[in-house]
């Protein structure tokens, strides 16, 4: 395995919950952080949450209080637990990981900052 493998997602109605999973390709792939991104149709990819195995550094304002990032370090797996979903959460969701140190000028909000990407998972929320 050289890339993260995602699963989960699908269709939900507003107010329901979904959970995404991301199995990372070894511990060193995520040594310098992980993120969940999403990309809605016609929009740029945006970071939803940036985190490591112990803390969350950033979480998008619109998902605060609704999305969490459970982690299972023994399984090298991270999750995106999405509760109280809203139609505006509809997007393709990606997990990402960085395996090398951050440098001045790097930005965790930028997709190019990450070395490994999951294949993407569609989440569609109907009203």
Walkthrough of the structure:
With 127 residues, the protein is mainly β. It has no helices and twelve strands. The protein has strands at 5-8, 10-13, 18-23, 34-39, 46-51, 56-59, 67-68, 71-72, 77-82, 91-97, 116-117, 121-126. The strands form two sheets. Strands 2, 4, 5, 6, 10, 11 and 12 form a seven-stranded mixed β-sheet that branches. The N and C termini lie far apart (37 Å). The mean pLDDT is 95.
What is the fold's blueprint, element by element?
Layout: E1 5-8, E2 10-13, E3 18-23, E4 34-39, E5 46-51, E6 56-59, E7 67-68, E8 71-72, E9 77-82, E10 91-97, E11 116-117, E12 121-126
Parallel strand pairs: 2-12
Antiparallel strand pairs: 1-3, 3-9, 4-5, 4-10, 5-6, 7-9, 8-9, 10-11, 10-12
Report on the biggest sheet. 7 strands, mixed
Total number of helices: 0
Distance between the termini: 37 Å
Structural class: mainly beta
CA-based shape? globular
The percent range for strand residues is: 35-45%
Strand segment count: 12
Overall mean confidence score, pLDDT? 95
Rg (C-alpha, Å) = 14 Å
- Poorly predicted regions: none
Sketch the topology as an H/E string, one letter per element: EEEEEEEEEEEE
The helical percent reads under 10%
Provide a quick synopsis of the model:
By secondary structure, this protein is mainly beta.
Please give a handful of descriptors for the protein shown.
seven-stranded mixed beta sheet, 127 residues
């Amino acid at each position: 395995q050289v890339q993260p493998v995602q699963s989960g997602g699908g269709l939900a109605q507003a107010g329901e919950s979904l959970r995404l999973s991301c199995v990372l390709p070894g511990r060193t792939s995520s040594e310098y952080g992980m993120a969940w991104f999403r990309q809605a149709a016609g929009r740029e990819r945006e970071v939803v949450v940036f985190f490591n195995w112990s803390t969350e550094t950033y979480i998008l304002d619109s998902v605060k209080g609704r999305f969490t990032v459970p982690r299972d370090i023994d399984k090298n797996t991270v999750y995106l637990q999405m509760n109280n979903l809203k139609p505006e959460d509809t997007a393709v969701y990606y997990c990402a990981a960085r395996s090398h140190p951050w440098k001045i000028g790097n930005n965790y909000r930028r997709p190019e900052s990450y070395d490994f990407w999951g294949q993407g998972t569609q989440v569609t929320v109907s009203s």
